[in-house]
Amino acid sequence: MISKLQFLMPKSIKISYPSVRNTNFDTETKKTEKQHSTMPIITLLSDWGSRDHYQAMVKAKIIGRMPGAVIVDIAHSIPPFNLNSASFVLRNTFAEFPRGTFHLIDIMADATIEMPHVVVLYDGHYFIGSDNGIFSLVFDHAPDRIVEIDMIQDTDTYTFATFDIFIKVVQHLDGGGTLEEVGSDREALTTRIALRPVTTPDLIKGHVIYIDHYENVITNITRPLFMEVGRKRNFVLTFGAARYSVTTISQSYKDVAPGEILAFFNATGHLEIAVSMGNAAGLLGIRHDDSVRMEFI
Protein backbone atom coordinates (compact mmCIF):
# COMPACT_ATOMS: atom_id res chain seq x y z
CA MET A 1 0.00 0.00 0.00
CA ILE A 2 1.33 3.43 -0.90
CA SER A 3 1.83 5.63 2.17
CA LYS A 4 0.20 9.01 2.63
CA LEU A 5 3.52 10.76 2.19
CA GLN A 6 4.07 9.41 -1.30
CA PHE A 7 3.33 11.40 -4.37
CA LEU A 8 -0.24 12.56 -4.73
CA MET A 9 -2.02 12.16 -8.01
CA PRO A 10 -4.95 14.50 -8.46
CA LYS A 11 -7.13 13.00 -11.17
CA SER A 12 -7.82 16.32 -12.79
CA ILE A 13 -4.26 17.62 -13.05
CA LYS A 14 -2.46 17.33 -16.39
CA ILE A 15 0.98 18.43 -17.43
CA SER A 16 0.59 21.24 -19.92
CA TYR A 17 3.46 20.96 -22.34
CA PRO A 18 3.12 23.72 -24.92
CA SER A 19 5.83 22.17 -27.08
CA VAL A 20 4.32 18.68 -27.29
CA ARG A 21 4.03 17.82 -30.94
CA ASN A 22 0.98 16.15 -32.44
CA THR A 23 1.49 15.65 -36.16
CA ASN A 24 4.29 18.08 -37.02
CA PHE A 25 7.61 16.45 -36.17
CA ASP A 26 11.13 17.67 -36.62
CA THR A 27 13.72 15.79 -38.63
CA GLU A 28 15.22 14.03 -35.63
CA THR A 29 11.84 12.68 -34.54
CA LYS A 30 11.20 11.31 -38.02
CA LYS A 31 14.62 9.70 -38.04
CA THR A 32 13.93 8.03 -34.72
CA GLU A 33 10.66 6.58 -35.96
CA LYS A 34 12.43 5.04 -38.95
CA GLN A 35 15.49 3.70 -37.14
CA HIS A 36 14.14 0.24 -36.36
CA SER A 37 15.66 -3.13 -37.04
CA THR A 38 15.09 -6.81 -36.44
CA MET A 39 17.27 -6.50 -33.32
CA PRO A 40 15.41 -4.00 -31.13
CA ILE A 41 16.63 -3.17 -27.65
CA ILE A 42 13.79 -3.70 -25.18
CA THR A 43 14.06 -2.83 -21.51
CA LEU A 44 11.72 -4.11 -18.81
CA LEU A 45 10.83 -2.34 -15.58
CA SER A 46 8.25 -3.87 -13.26
CA ASP A 47 7.21 -4.88 -9.78
CA TRP A 48 6.78 -8.55 -10.78
CA GLY A 49 9.58 -9.79 -8.53
CA SER A 50 11.59 -12.90 -9.41
CA ARG A 51 9.66 -15.79 -7.87
CA ASP A 52 6.77 -15.90 -10.34
CA HIS A 53 6.35 -16.69 -14.03
CA TYR A 54 5.74 -13.16 -15.32
CA GLN A 55 9.27 -12.40 -16.50
CA ALA A 56 9.58 -15.70 -18.35
CA MET A 57 6.22 -15.26 -20.09
CA VAL A 58 7.15 -11.81 -21.37
CA LYS A 59 10.65 -12.75 -22.50
CA ALA A 60 9.43 -15.91 -24.23
CA LYS A 61 6.87 -13.90 -26.17
CA ILE A 62 9.44 -11.28 -27.18
CA ILE A 63 11.88 -13.94 -28.37
CA GLY A 64 9.13 -15.74 -30.28
CA ARG A 65 8.08 -12.61 -32.12
CA MET A 66 11.43 -10.81 -32.42
CA PRO A 67 14.16 -13.49 -32.19
CA GLY A 68 16.98 -10.96 -32.48
CA ALA A 69 15.72 -8.68 -29.72
CA VAL A 70 18.11 -7.59 -26.99
CA ILE A 71 16.19 -7.77 -23.69
CA VAL A 72 17.51 -5.81 -20.72
CA ASP A 73 16.03 -6.12 -17.24
CA ILE A 74 16.22 -2.71 -15.60
CA ALA A 75 14.55 -3.93 -12.40
CA HIS A 76 11.75 -6.23 -11.27
CA SER A 77 11.95 -5.76 -7.52
CA ILE A 78 10.32 -2.35 -7.38
CA PRO A 79 8.06 -2.28 -4.28
CA PRO A 80 4.56 -3.22 -5.50
CA PHE A 81 2.64 -0.30 -7.00
CA ASN A 82 5.39 2.15 -6.04
CA LEU A 83 5.67 4.59 -8.93
CA ASN A 84 8.00 6.79 -6.91
CA SER A 85 10.71 4.15 -6.72
CA ALA A 86 10.10 3.08 -10.30
CA SER A 87 10.50 6.61 -11.61
CA PHE A 88 13.78 7.04 -9.74
CA VAL A 89 15.19 3.88 -11.31
CA LEU A 90 13.97 4.68 -14.81
CA ARG A 91 15.09 8.31 -14.66
CA ASN A 92 18.62 7.25 -13.82
CA THR A 93 18.96 4.51 -16.45
CA PHE A 94 17.08 5.17 -19.68
CA ALA A 95 19.46 7.77 -21.10
CA GLU A 96 22.33 5.25 -21.07
CA PHE A 97 20.57 3.22 -23.76
CA PRO A 98 20.78 4.07 -27.49
CA ARG A 99 18.12 6.15 -29.18
CA GLY A 100 15.35 3.97 -30.49
CA THR A 101 15.27 1.75 -27.39
CA PHE A 102 11.84 0.55 -26.26
CA HIS A 103 11.20 0.87 -22.51
CA LEU A 104 8.27 -1.21 -21.23
CA ILE A 105 6.97 -0.16 -17.81
CA ASP A 106 4.57 -2.55 -16.08
CA ILE A 107 3.76 -0.95 -12.73
CA MET A 108 0.13 -0.07 -12.03
CA ALA A 109 -0.27 -0.73 -15.74
CA ASP A 110 -4.01 -1.41 -15.89
CA ALA A 111 -5.62 1.00 -18.34
CA THR A 112 -8.51 3.30 -17.46
CA ILE A 113 -10.30 6.04 -19.35
CA GLU A 114 -8.28 8.68 -17.53
CA MET A 115 -5.02 6.71 -17.57
CA PRO A 116 -4.84 4.81 -20.86
CA HIS A 117 -1.94 2.85 -22.25
CA VAL A 118 0.38 5.15 -24.19
CA VAL A 119 3.51 5.27 -26.29
CA VAL A 120 5.62 8.30 -25.43
CA LEU A 121 8.46 9.41 -27.70
CA TYR A 122 11.03 11.32 -25.64
CA ASP A 123 14.59 12.18 -26.62
CA GLY A 124 14.59 9.40 -29.20
CA HIS A 125 13.36 6.72 -26.78
CA TYR A 126 10.01 4.92 -26.82
CA PHE A 127 8.29 4.55 -23.45
CA ILE A 128 5.30 2.20 -23.32
CA GLY A 129 3.13 1.99 -20.23
CA SER A 130 0.08 3.36 -18.51
CA ASP A 131 -0.31 7.13 -18.32
CA ASN A 132 -0.53 6.91 -14.53
CA GLY A 133 1.83 9.77 -13.75
CA ILE A 134 5.17 7.96 -13.85
CA PHE A 135 6.36 9.74 -16.99
CA SER A 136 5.90 13.15 -15.40
CA LEU A 137 8.39 12.09 -12.73
CA VAL A 138 10.95 10.87 -15.27
CA PHE A 139 10.97 13.55 -17.97
CA ASP A 140 12.67 16.94 -17.68
CA HIS A 141 10.87 18.53 -20.61
CA ALA A 142 8.03 18.03 -23.01
CA PRO A 143 7.96 14.70 -24.88
CA ASP A 144 8.09 14.74 -28.65
CA ARG A 145 4.85 12.81 -28.96
CA ILE A 146 2.22 11.04 -26.87
CA VAL A 147 0.04 8.40 -28.52
CA GLU A 148 -2.85 6.64 -26.82
CA ILE A 149 -2.70 2.95 -27.78
CA ASP A 150 -5.75 1.75 -29.71
CA MET A 151 -4.66 -1.64 -31.01
CA ILE A 152 -6.47 -4.93 -30.54
CA GLN A 153 -4.57 -6.82 -27.87
CA ASP A 154 -3.45 -10.42 -28.15
CA THR A 155 -5.59 -11.81 -25.32
CA ASP A 156 -9.06 -11.33 -23.89
CA THR A 157 -7.73 -10.54 -20.41
CA TYR A 158 -6.78 -7.13 -19.08
CA THR A 159 -4.43 -7.81 -16.20
CA PHE A 160 -1.00 -8.26 -17.82
CA ALA A 161 -0.43 -5.25 -20.05
CA THR A 162 3.13 -6.01 -21.17
CA PHE A 163 2.17 -9.50 -22.29
CA ASP A 164 -1.25 -8.56 -23.65
CA ILE A 165 -0.47 -5.43 -25.68
CA PHE A 166 2.93 -3.73 -25.10
CA ILE A 167 4.95 -6.40 -26.92
CA LYS A 168 2.58 -6.18 -29.88
CA VAL A 169 3.18 -2.42 -30.08
CA VAL A 170 6.96 -2.92 -30.05
CA GLN A 171 6.72 -5.55 -32.79
CA HIS A 172 4.59 -3.21 -34.88
CA LEU A 173 6.94 -0.24 -34.56
CA ASP A 174 10.10 -2.30 -34.97
CA GLY A 175 8.64 -3.82 -38.12
CA GLY A 176 8.27 -0.40 -39.70
CA GLY A 177 4.75 0.43 -38.52
CA THR A 178 3.89 4.01 -37.65
CA LEU A 179 2.63 5.63 -34.49
CA GLU A 180 -0.44 6.75 -36.43
CA GLU A 181 -1.35 3.08 -36.76
CA VAL A 182 -0.88 2.53 -33.02
CA GLY A 183 -3.47 5.07 -31.93
CA SER A 184 -4.40 8.71 -31.62
CA ASP A 185 -2.37 11.61 -30.28
CA ARG A 186 -2.78 12.70 -26.68
CA GLU A 187 -2.11 16.30 -25.75
CA ALA A 188 -0.76 15.93 -22.22
CA LEU A 189 0.47 13.43 -19.67
CA THR A 190 -1.09 12.75 -16.30
CA THR A 191 1.07 14.21 -13.58
CA ARG A 192 2.10 13.24 -10.08
CA ILE A 193 3.28 15.81 -7.60
CA ALA A 194 6.71 14.90 -6.30
CA LEU A 195 7.83 15.65 -2.78
CA ARG A 196 10.57 18.25 -3.07
CA PRO A 197 13.05 19.45 -0.46
CA VAL A 198 11.99 22.42 1.64
CA THR A 199 14.70 24.98 2.34
CA THR A 200 15.35 27.96 4.58
CA PRO A 201 18.63 29.88 4.83
CA ASP A 202 19.92 27.35 7.39
CA LEU A 203 17.95 24.17 6.70
CA ILE A 204 17.19 21.57 4.06
CA LYS A 205 14.34 19.22 4.83
CA GLY A 206 14.24 16.28 2.44
CA HIS A 207 12.71 12.84 2.16
CA VAL A 208 13.74 9.29 1.41
CA ILE A 209 12.91 8.55 -2.23
CA TYR A 210 14.53 5.14 -2.72
CA ILE A 211 15.99 2.22 -0.79
CA ASP A 212 18.24 -0.03 -2.85
CA HIS A 213 19.00 -3.75 -2.66
CA TYR A 214 21.68 -3.15 -0.02
CA GLU A 215 19.18 -1.06 1.97
CA ASN A 216 21.17 2.09 1.37
CA VAL A 217 18.89 5.09 1.79
CA ILE A 218 18.68 7.63 -1.05
CA THR A 219 17.18 11.05 -0.45
CA ASN A 220 15.92 13.85 -2.66
CA ILE A 221 18.65 16.21 -1.44
CA THR A 222 21.04 16.80 -4.34
CA ARG A 223 24.62 17.99 -4.37
CA PRO A 224 23.78 21.33 -6.10
CA LEU A 225 21.12 22.06 -3.46
CA PHE A 226 23.55 21.17 -0.68
CA MET A 227 26.17 23.52 -2.14
CA GLU A 228 23.67 26.33 -2.69
CA VAL A 229 22.17 26.31 0.80
CA GLY A 230 25.21 25.13 2.74
CA ARG A 231 27.76 27.56 1.35
CA LYS A 232 30.58 25.41 2.77
CA ARG A 233 29.24 25.63 6.33
CA ASN A 234 29.28 22.84 8.89
CA PHE A 235 26.07 20.88 9.23
CA VAL A 236 24.21 18.22 11.19
CA LEU A 237 22.22 15.66 9.19
CA THR A 238 19.55 13.95 11.31
CA PHE A 239 17.32 11.03 10.34
CA GLY A 240 15.62 7.96 11.76
CA ALA A 241 13.21 10.00 13.93
CA ALA A 242 16.20 12.23 14.81
CA ARG A 243 17.89 9.36 16.66
CA TYR A 244 20.89 9.32 14.33
CA SER A 245 23.09 12.05 12.90
CA VAL A 246 26.06 12.62 10.58
CA THR A 247 28.22 15.73 10.41
CA THR A 248 30.54 15.00 7.47
CA ILE A 249 30.21 14.07 3.81
CA SER A 250 32.17 10.95 2.93
CA GLN A 251 33.54 9.93 -0.46
CA SER A 252 32.95 6.17 -0.32
CA TYR A 253 31.67 3.35 1.88
CA LYS A 254 35.24 2.60 2.98
CA ASP A 255 35.72 6.01 4.59
CA VAL A 256 34.34 4.65 7.86
CA ALA A 257 34.77 1.43 9.78
CA PRO A 258 32.34 -1.46 9.21
CA GLY A 259 29.10 -0.85 11.06
CA GLU A 260 29.44 2.93 11.15
CA ILE A 261 26.97 5.35 9.57
CA LEU A 262 28.01 7.62 6.71
CA ALA A 263 26.51 10.00 4.18
CA PHE A 264 27.77 10.87 0.70
CA PHE A 265 26.58 12.00 -2.70
CA ASN A 266 26.20 8.97 -4.96
CA ALA A 267 26.59 8.53 -8.71
CA THR A 268 23.16 10.05 -9.38
CA GLY A 269 24.03 13.15 -7.37
CA HIS A 270 21.66 12.37 -4.49
CA LEU A 271 22.53 12.34 -0.79
CA GLU A 272 22.78 8.72 0.33
CA ILE A 273 22.78 7.41 3.90
CA ALA A 274 24.48 4.06 4.44
CA VAL A 275 26.03 1.78 7.01
CA SER A 276 29.43 0.46 5.97
CA MET A 277 29.06 -3.27 5.30
CA GLY A 278 25.53 -3.10 6.69
CA ASN A 279 21.92 -2.39 5.78
CA ALA A 280 21.07 1.18 6.78
CA ALA A 281 17.31 1.08 6.26
CA GLY A 282 16.83 -1.99 8.43
CA LEU A 283 19.34 -1.10 11.11
CA LEU A 284 18.24 2.51 11.44
CA GLY A 285 14.52 1.95 10.99
CA ILE A 286 14.24 4.16 7.91
CA ARG A 287 11.42 3.76 5.39
CA HIS A 288 10.33 5.28 2.09
CA ASP A 289 9.22 8.90 2.46
CA ASP A 290 10.75 9.36 5.92
CA SER A 291 12.07 12.86 6.45
CA VAL A 292 15.72 13.86 6.81
CA ARG A 293 16.96 17.23 8.08
CA MET A 294 20.21 18.98 7.27
CA GLU A 295 20.81 21.99 9.53
CA PHE A 296 23.72 24.33 8.79
CA ILE A 297 25.61 25.97 11.62
Structural write-up:
There is one protein chain. The protein is of the alpha+beta class and 297 residues long. It is elongated, with a radius of gyration of 21 Å. It contains eight helices and 15 strands. The two termini are 38 Å apart. The N terminus is likely disordered. It folds into two domains: 159 residues, Rossmann fold, CATH 3.40.50; 99 residues, Elongation Factor Tu (Ef-tu), domain 3, CATH 2.40.30. Strands 8, 9, 10, 11, 12, 13, 14 and 15 form an eight-stranded antiparallel β-sheet that branches. A seven-stranded mixed β-sheet has the order 2-1-3-5-4-6-7, with helices on both faces.
Radius of gyration: 21 Å
List the domain count as a whole number. Answer: 2
Question: Under CATH, the topology of the largest domain is which?
Answer: Rossmann fold
Approximate helicity band? 10-25%
CATH class of the largest domain: Alpha Beta
End-to-end separation: 38 Å
Structure annotation, total helices:
8
**Low-pLDDT windows of residues:** 1-19, 21-35
Mean pLDDT: 89
Give the CATH architecture of the largest domain.
3-Layer(aba) Sandwich
Count of DSSP E strands? 15
- Categorize the overall geometry: elongated
Summarize the biggest pleated sheet.
Answer: 8 strands, antiparallel
